[in-house]
Amino acid sequence: MIRPAPAWPLPRLFAHRCGGALAPENTLAGLVVAARLGCRAVEFDVMLSADGTPWLIHDETLERTTDGSGRVAATPDVLLAKLDAGIRQHPAFSGEPVPTLAAAAALCRRLGLQANVEIKPASGYEALTGEVVARAIGELWRDSAAPLVSSFSFAALAAARCVAPQLPLGCLWTQPPADWRAPFDELRAFSVHCAAEGLSDNFLVAASAAGAPVLCYTVNDAEQAAALWRRGVSALFSDRPERLLPAAALHD
Ligand code: G3P
Ligand code: MG
Which atom of ligand 1 is nearest to the CA of 218? Predict the structure, then answer.
C-alpha cells in the first residue's frame, strides 16, 4: 500500500534565507525582520559543522557571508559561534552571529513563523546531513507542527525520510526533470520547489494532477508574483517580502 505524503499548511509567501535582502541572510535578525513585516513563513539553509551540528548557512565556505574563512564542514562549533554574519553583508547588523538550527527553531516558534528548512549538505555529507537535520527537527519541533524540509540533494532527503517517516518533504530542483515523479513518489514528498524562470504550464498541470504543490524561488516583483499565483504556483520565496506581502494576502 502506498502511504499518503504528509500534508503541510502552505502560506503564499516565504521570506528567503530568513529575512530576504532586509537583513543578513540566514540570521536570527532576519527572522525578526520577517516577523515584524508580517510574514507567516521563512526559508533558511542548514549545513553541518565539523562537529556535526546543524547551522544556518548557505555556502560551503565562510567568506561570502561571515568574517571567517575556510569550509563550514571543517570548522568546529566553537569557531562558528564566534563569527560575525552581519559585517560583510549588512554592516548595520555587525555582530550578528551565525545561528544554530536550534536557535533558529526556538525563535521561529516564539515568533510564530512557519519554516522551510532547506538541507544544504556540504559535498560528501549528503546522507549524514539529511539524517542529522531530520533528527534535530524531530527534537526541536517535537510539540508543534514540523517544518517543511527541502533539498536539492535526493540523498539528503532519502536519509531524512528514513529517520522521519512523517516529515513533510519538498523536492528541490532548478527545473524539475522529465521523470520528477519517480523521486517524488519514492520520497513520499509533499511539494516540488523550483526556480520561477522556465517554469512550464505543462509541469504545473502534471504537478496539480499529482496533488503536488509547486513553490518557486526567487521572486521579488509583485506583478511576477501575482502572475505565478494565478498560474497555480502555491507559494513563493522572496528576497523582497515587503513588496509581495500585500498581494500575498489577497491570494491567501
Ligand atoms: O529553497 C529555495 C531556494 O532557497 C533554493 O536556492 O540557493 O537560495 O538556497 P538557494
Ligand atoms: Mg535556500
Answer: 3
